[in-house]
Specification:
Layout: H1 4-15, H2 19-26, H3 32-39, H4 44-53, H5 59-64, E1 77-81, E2 89-90, E3 95-98, H6 106-110, E4 120-122, E5 127-128, E6 132-135, E7 150-155, E8 168-175, E9 178-188, E10 195-199, E11 208-211, E12 215-227
Parallel strand pairs: 3-6
Antiparallel strand pairs: 1-12, 2-5, 3-4, 6-7, 7-12, 8-9, 8-12, 9-10, 10-11
Length: 231
């Protein structure tokens, strides 16, 4: 389990914050957070200032690691864009929502000769260009993604040279002659340039090195969408 400052840093990264920004915004004395890191503790008064300044931060998660990092109001939809520096936002676009199961896998979904049925369309302004969206299955990226969340993606044609290391990908690989579809972080492999390492957010899932010849389809995740309530 992450300790207090690891959880705090995770929230800082999520909000694109740093110690200096938080010090100014929360009214904390200069250098207190840095000193707290060295001591391994932060006073309750300063923790309270942080929680008051960022009400979306789940106090229970910050202090104990229990629950979700961010407080989500009932019925809210949470959108997490995954934007590269090279991305250009599109003011208006209709992103088709597909079913991977209905198209019998990601390879068929990406096949230009196929015409997959569209479940619905998603319209969110100022997202990077996306080719489509699908529902997430499984818990390998929990808690970042949950089963039933939606990811919007941009298809990658060049598996070897079109990779942005450390980013999140929708990927199809061949395992014992069958297609295995998942969402993973893709990192460089210690086995060489012909391999990639698939890494889960959920630490119960071990990283796995895959030969590039086993990759059947690949798309970089541009946004994730979570519906907190279906009612």
């Amino acid at each position: 389990m992450l300790d207090f400052f690891e959880r705090l840093d995770k929230f800082f990264k999520y909000k694109e914050l740093n110690d200096n920004k938080v010090t100014l915004q929360a009214g904390i004395s200069n250098g207190i957070i840095g000193k707290g890191r060295k001591r391994g503790s932060l006073s309750l008064d300063n923790i309270s200032k942080i929680l008051y300044t960022y009400p979306e931060l789940n106090a229970n998660w910050l202090l104990t690691g229990t629950g979700e990092m961010v407080n989500i109001p009932d019925g809210a939809m949470i959108l997490n864009p995954h934007v590269l520096k090279s991305d250009n936002a599109v003011d208006r676009q209709s992103i088709p929502l597909y079913s991977v199961e209905a198209t019998a896998g990601l390879v068929n979904l990406f096949d230009s000769n196929q015409t997959p049925s569209v479940i619905d369309t998603i319209k969110i302004p100022n997202l990077p260009k996306c080719d489509g969206a699908v529902f997430v299955m499984g818990d390998s990226m929990y808690p970042l993604l949950k089963s039933g969340d939606i990811v919007a993606y941009k298809q990658i044609q060049n598996f070897k040279d079109g990779m942005f290391w450390g980013e999140m990908y929708l990927i199809s690989v061949e395992v014992d002659g069958e297609e295995y579809v998942s969402v993973k972080f893709v990192q460089k492999s210690d086995l060489g340039d012909d391999y990639i390492k698939l890494v889960s957010q959920n630490t119960y899932h071990q990283p796995k090195d895959i030969h590039l010849s086993k990759v059947r389809a690949l798309a970089i995740v541009k946004a994730s969408i979570r519906l907190n309530s279906m009612s």
